[in-house]
Amino acid sequence: MIKKMTLLPIKKSLLLISLSVFLSGCASFGKGVAEAFLEKSDAEDTRACQIRGKSFEGIAPGLEKSQGKTKVLMVHGVGDRLPGYSTEFLEKLANELHLTAKSSSYKDIKLMSFSDPEEKLGDLRISRLQDENGNKELWFYELTWSEITREQKALLAFDNSGEYSFKRAEVNDMLKKFSNDTGPDPIIYLGKSRDLILRSFAQAFCWMGKDSWDQIPKDGRQGCDFTNVPGASFNQDEFVFISHSLGSRIAIDGITRMVSLLESPEKKSTIRTINKVKREALQKKHVQIFMMSNQLPMLQLGRELPEVSAQKADYCQVTGSKYTSRMFNETSIIAFSDPNDLLSYAIPQDFSEKYLDSRLCINVTNVNINVAKVFDAFGMGKMANPIEAHVGYSKDDRVVALIARGIGGGHTAPLVKEKCQWTEINDQ
């Protein structure tokens, strides 16, 4: 009888914490009270890593090109972020790619809209990394769009004050503050701020087109016009995108918006200044988008179909009737999802054809990976910390190795060969 009475409060606590995490939204709540109950490491790492789809190169092959640079754009998910949020991930990525030499200082641009110079579009921090011989070079662009939603989220600031928070239990108060920070972002993105966030993405992409480090200002509020972007960068440089949760929707929507504006001369936008030569250069490119904690299926709910869908053959095959109107030659989406991440989903086989723009020529590779360890929860059954399952991707060595070196090519990391299983599918 005593044994049952002592276990009951533990079971109730576990249930409450799990439900609270599920309801609280997305992004990092970090380690805290929940982990005091949930974390129990196994001596042997038996976490799954299953890859299903086409091979992908990762970042490494682009670094070996004799001309051009490799440029990586990072787009964060929900929750308030400050510039520098990707530092830990960037350091792990740099180590995996053996880029040990870093520019003495990063460049930090406050993004500006040409139509309204007073409009805030967020922050773009740019770091330059090289190998010890200076033969390989990577430019890393960290986009922080939180500034756009911060003012609207201040509407809930009263709920975080002592006037209301002192009435809550300690754990519930932490979860409520977390929910107030992360929950509003997907809702705000559905409103008028969506256009600002997508313009922020377009500005970041424009700055990726600069082919000289000296062309990028060190700081200040700046705007980028595609008219001043050298055509050589589109021809020679490699473009890679990395995103987390809502950031994946932003990346896809941002690229799709650019395609639509290019084909709509009546719409006023600096994107239309991409001339025919630059457009043709983009159409030869193979772009990779790495989506951590992929949420595209969930974030498609309630949205209209894209402007152009179910026409992949017309746009992406050489013999297609609209082949010259595509955006890229190929877009590889590598979608990472932990099955114990309550807010993450794989991309079904027919999803891209119906719900993603055909002009991007998308193929999908799903990575089903346990970034959080599964353990025995006090004899109640197997369990994984859902918080770690959602935020742990950028810290996982296998995820970093896959982004850095891909799979199925000559650069695949030994760790991936040892820990991951790959089922190759080429007909997507």
Give a quick set of tags describing it.
single chain; twelve-stranded mixed beta sheet; 36% helix; two-stranded antiparallel sheet; alpha/beta
Question: How would you sum up this structure, described in words?
Answer:
The protein has 18 helices and 14 strands. The protein is of the alpha/beta class. The chain has one domain (46-147, 198-424). The strands form 2 sheets. Strands 1, 2, 3, 4, 5, 6, 7, 8, 9, 10, 11 and 14 form a 12-stranded mixed β-sheet that branches. It has a two-stranded antiparallel ribbon with strand order 12-13. β12 and β13 (382-384) form a beta hairpin. α4 (87-96) packs across α17 and α9 (193-208) packs across α11 (246-262). The longest helix has 23 residues, at 2-24. The radius of gyration is 22 Å and the shape is globular. The model is unreliable at 1-13, 19-34 and 36-42 (pLDDT under 50).
